[in-house]
């Protein structure tokens, strides 16, 4: 199944810069793993904030939840998910 996933991260302003940098580096590494695994098919950055929108592939909603929950920034994210279905006009 494919899902449209919107992630917006709101890190606490009092978080030390080093901790923030470490988390962002860990997030990038985990994201790269999900891309290599085919879980993240497409990803776009939303300029001006720590947010993105992407097309994710998962066997079912539980599998998707597990993948999103594996992100190091998960606890600071607002996540919106929509299941996608094929359209007859899609080339």
- Give the N-terminus to C-terminus distance in angstroms: 18 Å
Element pattern in H and E: EHEEHE
Shape: elongated
The structural class is alpha+beta
- Spans of at least 5 consecutive residues with low confidence: none
Quick check: average pLDDT? Answer: 97
User: What's the β-strand tally?
Assistant: 4
Rg over CA atoms: 14 Å
Widest beta sheet: strand line-up: 2-3-1-4
Strand fraction equals 25-35%
Q: What's the assembly state of these chains?
A: single chain
Word description of this protein:
This protein has 91 residues and is α+β, with helices and mostly antiparallel strands. Helix content is 32%, strand content 32%. A four-stranded antiparallel beta sheet has the order 2-3-1-4. The mean pLDDT is 97.
How does the SSE layout of this entry go?
Layout: E1 2-9, H1 17-36, E2 40-45, E3 51-57, H2 61-69, E4 77-84
Antiparallel strand pairs: 1-3, 1-4, 2-3
